[in-house]
Amino acid sequence: MNVLVVGAGAMGRWFADAVRAGFEPARVAFADPDDAAASAAADTADGRTVPLDTDESFAVVCVAVPIPVVVEAIATHANRAEDAVVDVTGVAAEPVAAMRDQAPDCERLSLHPLFAPANEPGNVAAVVDAAGPTTDTIRDALTARGNTVFETTAAEHDRAMETVQAKAHAAVLAFGLAADEVPDQFQTPVSAALFDLLEQVTSGDARVYADIQRAFDGAADVAAAADEFAAADGDALETLYSEAGDRR
User: Fold this and answer.
1) Interatomic CA distance for residues 17 and 78, integer angstroms
2) Quick one: pLDDT at residue 23?
């Protein structure tokens, strides 16, 4: 089976590894504006590279590009798919709508691994817009790697991302900007955990985190909550403390 992965970053390589295990044989091609990145990904997957304007067709086309250009990438590459179009970009509503528009006769699947590829296995959100044997095989391949693949809707996924990504990242990064350096012996279990989270977040790609903040609402809510907490005292602070605990 021929598979085209548009985007030779970590998520594109992760998808290529999964389909190679799920389809026998699977021949993976990478297309990326960065020729060196495409070549490196192809070498890892025992695959090949193709130009972004290739006129080849493929059984599966997977779009693994940054969030701001996903709709454009689907419009460019979806017509090369014979069986299925997949995206692994981390947002659901826009790519699902674009795949439906650009590939109405294909199987369509939006996947979001809720972990960095190096931390696999984990949970993988799946918006199954048009199911079939090819997308079923892809999901089975992910499950075989130890992942938990769960179905959701585009709206539910994007609403959840406002909390688990946009708000969570904003809260951790705001703590980092506000925190002072203190000797290790002063750390509490809570502060140490926050600094560990800060290290985890800031060791990633800043562009990816910026894309998430632009794609999902949430940061403003974190800022408003922090302002409310900072201004509260006495009974008001205790009320906010209780309200926060109710979210556990």
Assistant:
1) 21
2) 81
| Positions in the chain whose pLDDT score sits under 50 | none
pTM of whole model > 0.85?
yes
CA 120, distance to chain mean position in Å, is 13
Check if the beta carbon of residue 175 is closer than 8 Å to that of residue 194: yes
Rg of the chain in Å (alpha carbons): 21
In this prediction, residue 26 carries a pLDDT of 80
Question: Three-class SS of residue 223?
Answer: helix
Q: Tokens 């190096």 map to which residue?
A: 118
Cα(248)–Cα(245) distance, integer angstroms: 6
- Residue boundaries of the structural domains of the chain: 2-152, 156-245
Alpha helices in the chain (DSSP H): 10-22, 35-44, 70-77, 93-102, 133-144, 154-161, 168-178, 189-202, 206-215, 219-231, 234-245
How does DSSP classify residue 104?
T
Sheet with 58-63, strands from edge to edge, namely 48-49, 27-31, 2-6, 58-63, 81-87, 107-113, 123-130, 148-151
H helices present in 53-147, as ranges: 70-77, 93-102, 133-144
The per-residue pLDDT for 245 is 87
> Cis (ω within 30 of 0) for the bond into 33?
no
pLDDT value, residue 153: 98
The single-letter code of the amino acid at 56 is E
Query: What 8-state DSSP symbol labels residue 3?
Result: E
For 2-152, CATH number?
Answer: 3.40.50.720
What's the pLDDT score for residue 246? 86
Tokens read off for 86: 């997949």
